[in-house]
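cache lookup: miss for this entity combination. No prior model stored, computing from scratch. Input as submitted by user K.M.:
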Amino acid sequence: MTWTPDVDLARTESATDALTSPEPPPFPTPPRWLVAIDVGGSGSRLVAVPLPAVPAPSADRPDADHPTDTPDEARHRTELTGRSVAIGPDGSDVADVVRDLCASFVVARTGPHGAPPVVAAAAVGATGLATLVPDPATVHAALRTSLGTGRTAVAADALTAHLGALGGRAGAVVAVGTGAIALGTDLRDVWRRTDGWGHLLGDLGSASWIGAHGLRAALAAHDGRATGGSRPLLAAARARFGPVPTWPAQLYTRADRAQVLGSFTPDVAAAAAAGDPASVQILTEAGRHLAETLAAALAPGLPPLAAATGGVLAAGPSLTGALARRFAALRPDAELVPSAGTPLDGALHLARLLTQGATSSTTDAPTPATPLVARAPWLSLGDEPPVPAPSTTTPITGDPT
Amino acid sequence: MTWTPDVDLARTESATDALTSPEPPPFPTPPRWLVAIDVGGSGSRLVAVPLPAVPAPSADRPDADHPTDTPDEARHRTELTGRSVAIGPDGSDVADVVRDLCASFVVARTGPHGAPPVVAAAAVGATGLATLVPDPATVHAALRTSLGTGRTAVAADALTAHLGALGGRAGAVVAVGTGAIALGTDLRDVWRRTDGWGHLLGDLGSASWIGAHGLRAALAAHDGRATGGSRPLLAAARARFGPVPTWPAQLYTRADRAQVLGSFTPDVAAAAAAGDPASVQILTEAGRHLAETLAAALAPGLPPLAAATGGVLAAGPSLTGALARRFAALRPDAELVPSAGTPLDGALHLARLLTQGATSSTTDAPTPATPLVARAPWLSLGDEPPVPAPSTTTPITGDPT
């Protein structure tokens, strides 16, 4: 019932499935893995690929456009799905979601003689990290204790979306899922974030925003209001949620209200495709909002390059057309390019960048020209020394405050 | 920090204060009390008045316009305030709020020899009753066990707002507090409700709606969006909530999100009064929404009579002007009258109506011409026989489903 925009169901394997799937073909020698995790409001995903025999890419030759282009990666790529993050009185439980996914990966890739997989680096992109997880150290600790590597990165999902969509290039990216947030950055000096304020304060044009406005149009028809009603949306909402008087109790007693709202977005998209004027209007407004969010993130000092990413963009041409037109009006100098990859691709890109400074028992990776630099609240780096064996349990992060 | 629209602070006495205030002047004989309670999203209130020596009003001569017009009532009127209702996984906790207020009343009015007050009838108007309290029997039981009377009424706050605003006359009333709901009724055959769907699905034009839109305008200025920003609202929101990045954690981790949003409405009203165009626009839109809610509740079969009630109407002429203009455009045949009283007055009116069928040890009240009739989910009646003494603990309600 939730809106899972980026999940490619044809390629995604559930955690349970992975435990029972056939053993992958054996490596000549045990591989070292890159692990990437995307934790979102509508689910979480892990992808792991074996490190290629070729050197890791240098910072001036990003390969995020081709994240799975080596034969080993394509053959042994491991994908798992997990639950969505929950927001409670203590903030979000990203670390628990990460720990569960890592445990499933270790079980799935433990060798025939019980040897656990060797992980070279791991990176997490997490929703709400900028505002609701006060201390990324808990996520670093979850990665380190689960995977046995101190080479870890914890990023806001806005940054992994950016890395995935622009492949490491500077510019602005708006990520549209259950929520909506844009980040304009060159990964160095400029870091401008816009929106991402959650379903009550913003996330304008996101799935939760579209769904909420769709349900309001349904209720306007139900109440007989003079304006704003949509009988097709009322019929669709009754089909999805049952009798109207039950809707408040279904929504307000749940912790995942934004996801429940977002679950109605496919119905709005379908009604718009069938010509419902209220639905077309909602998607048009959503596109305009997203364009304003994106334009405001394209700060001075950044190249005029921008992209939008997220499955909500599939809601239809009403949304994407309005987004493109409004963005062109606001920033006629800028190029709006298609997204090159998903936030999970961006997290994998980030994990790969982590290995650039690593010494390795199997490869001699070059020292990077421009190493990753931590930047709160967007990017936090685990600084555990890879050699000798880690013994302390206190992580050292970039700037967790 | 919450928006408490209807509370007259000059006249309201806190529960703690009541316990330490001077003993009221003694009655020649122990009085019989009418108790009325209003349970809302931003607080709860109890008012109790001694039954007048004159007969109770008949249904065709409502006296809600003058609820405290006898000398005894004015001298001995007791007012207490309590906490607001909380919405949890099991619905709202109206019964607990009612029990606490009743206990405070009994303590405050227990006689010098330890005799508890004798209650003739008690009525509750409660927020969310139509949707989030599946069984009003728990509220009847709280009244009966706390006050010792089986003559009880439990009503949705939309009904007590109606009774207070129109004094028992047929028509439509929109009640605007933290939420917004309208009810069109003749208390007999026509019962049309509009909006009241809560802060995520509706409550258009309410304090939570105005506050949320004000905070969005503040964040639009903070983000540098092309449209919709208000720097005065950004300054006001920083003064109230602190640094912008802390806002989501302050809001999304709380159970009373609608109240937190509504707490910003006075700032929007102040900014509008100072000429901020974005704030004026928000209040104007709120007024239009409220007019549509009210017009949709004025169903066929009702006289063309309507009123708006609630402290949010004090947000300024931008709101009330837009409400009046839009309502006149939608229903040029109808009269929009000033509200005659508050929802608490309406609950007291309801308690008074309950005594019309009662036999009494001190007065002989007439048999009513048109007795109250239960109507789910608006009005539920406790049917405990007043004579003999109640011994069962199972309440009989009108139609709790």
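stored under new cache key. Chain B has two domains: 15-167+341-381, 207-336.
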